[in-house]
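Worked Example 4.2. Consider the chain below.
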Amino acid sequence: MLLRENFIFNIVFIVFISSAAIQIFFYAFFYLKAGLHRKVNNSHDHKPVSIIICARNEEDNLRKFLPSVLEQDYPAFEVIVVNDCSEDNSYSVLGEFLQRYPCLRVCDISRDPKFTHNKKFAQFIGIKAAKNELLLFTDADCHAETDKWAEGMVSHFNENTDFVLGYGGYEVRKGILNRYIRYDTMMIALQYTGMALRGIPYMGVGRNLAYRRSVFFKNKGFGSHSNIVSGDDDLFVNQLANKQNTAVEIRRETHTRSVPASSFTELFNQKRRHLTTANHYKLRDRIILFTEPVTRTLFYISFVILISWSYLWQYTALVFTVRLILQSFTIKLATKRFNEPGIFIFSVFFDIFSPFLNLAFYMSNYLQSQGKNQWK
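Applying the procedure from the previous section yields the following structure tokens:
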């Protein structure tokens, strides 16, 4: 009986050490790379850029947030708002802005009962209407943190750059839900920017993303995944971005901020929609993204088992402490880099909790199908 127990605990200890090693690798190789990233000397020749925003029934958000985009301190840009079948007063709001801002252009899509479409169609209309080669994207419920947003994102483009990945965070609000949303967003950003900086770009976020118009049309746009609700940002990047053609921009002045979910139900639906694209990533990326939360879960479960039974507890505690120190240092660095106050002290709790929550989001996609032509 004793031999059997020792064998089981040995297996658990091996699982603990293995999962801890993988976790430490993720933090040291990917996450720290993003946290320590510094701006390189980029171009400042002010290449013309078209900023594209798709909006459906976003009257209030357009009135509140669009000026931050229209008032960018940049000499060569246009802003294209695709007003997609809005039934509120978006048309009137945009009409007011057209009189005040010469850089604004509006594309209206009228409702057709015989043709339903998702956001990708609106995005296509905006891209087709763009006059410039460089395209910069954000959402109607987003605002630029500063008037240097466009300049910072565009400055990375050279003859080799097709994609620039930026950071799109959420506004600071009261409550634990807001802290979790911002923590989750920050950790996702550490992952996709860190992997991109290591030569493995796999996604970007439509709240803050730039790419070339010619790359879009050369590769038939969203054609390979046009039937998927999400993916106008991450799937497009996953399909075409590589080590040579992708840059990262995460300075504070180039961040955008969005309106966060105000309830768990809203967050649940949002995350479910985003996770519909995960199964369409490249196999390499799916393996990497699957490995991190699985090893994190195994790390915590095996730690609890070993400590509870005082089995090799000194070594277990030492390894746990090493990961905790590295984790704390990285997240503290990231909260400053991404300007996310008030979440550091909750990070260990969120670190334990988030894999189970994301699993619930992911599994719900198998239990409840979504309409293919939802707008967003």
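The mean pLDDT is 90. The beta strands are 49-55, 77-84, 104-109, 134-139, 142-144, 163-165, 168-170, 209-212, 246-248, 256-258. Compare this with Example 4.1 before moving on.
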